[in-house]
Design brief:
Largest sheet: 5 strands, mixed
Strand content: 25-35%
Shape: globular
Helix content: 25-40%
Number of helices: 3
Number of strands: 7
Length: 109
């Protein structure tokens, strides 16, 4: 949810029908609201590594986020989102966060 909200705040619009378990390579598809360019997001929690080279064949920008895992490789269409960027986003945009995330942040602080 957090990565989807972050990307939507940065000009992308999530396409809900693409959030299916059959698309193991990515969580969902987005489109940039001005350019119409496709984007994909893959999110992993914990120490799961992500390798940019696994996503280089996708037609569009790929956003990868892993909370504690290794970020490996490079590809011209892949951007890694840093955990610190998401923490800052959460602090600055509390009003749009899901209730369970707000409660989770209260417990951690």
């Amino acid at each position: 949810d957090l990565i989807g909200l972050y990307l939507q705040e940065n000009g992308y619009r999530l396409i809900p029908s693409t959030c299916k378990t059959g698309t193991a390579k990515y969580e969902y598809v987005l489109k940039h609201q001005e350019t119409g360019q496709n984007a994909y997001a893959q999110v992993k929690r914990g120490s799961v590594p992500l390798n940019a080279e696994d996503y280089k064949t996708l037609d569009g920008t790929v956003f990868l986020f892993t909370s504690d895992g290794d970020r490996r490789g490079a590809a011209s269409n892949v951007e890694f989102i840093e955990p610190s960027t998401i923490r800052a986003f959460m602090q600055e945009n509390r009003q749009i966060l899901p209730d369970r995330v707000v409660e989770w942040t209260r417990v951690l602080n």
